[in-house]
Amino acid sequence: MKKILNLLLFAFFVMCLFLFRPRQDVVFAAINETQYIRLFEKGMDFEIGIEDNNTFTGTYTILKDTVYLSYREQSIQAAVISGKSNKDFRRILPRKLYINKDASHIEASDGKAFSAKIFLDIRRKQYDAPTYSIHELKNQDASTTGI
What pTM was computed for the model? Predict the structure, then answer.
C-alpha cells in the first residue's frame, strides 16, 4: 500500500511539473527592483509587472528597437479589483518602450515611469541588413550572371 501511495504521489508531482511550469519561449526579459517585462515568441505575447506586483498581459510589436504594447482588457480589469481605478492603471502603463542595447536598458519613451535592466535578449534580428565581404559579393555576382 505504501508503494502505491508513493507512486501516486510521484506521478502527481511529475504531472504538476508539466502543468505549472513557466513559459519557455521567452525571447526578451528585463527587470529592476519593482518592475519587469518578458516578451514571448509564441503569439507575440508579453507580461509586464508594475507597482505592487500588478501583472499585465497583452501582445507586442517590435520595430527596430522600439516595442509597442497592446494590453488585454482582462488583465487591467483584474488589477482594478485589487484596489486602483482603471484610469490609474491606464495612466501608468507604458505603450511604447525603447531598447537601448548599448546600455543594456529598456525604458518607456511615452513619458511613463518604466525602466529596467535587460538580462535576456535573443530576439531575431530580422531588421538587420546582412553583411557581405567583397569576396562574397564577387562570388554572388558571378553566380547570378552565369560566369
Answer: 0.67
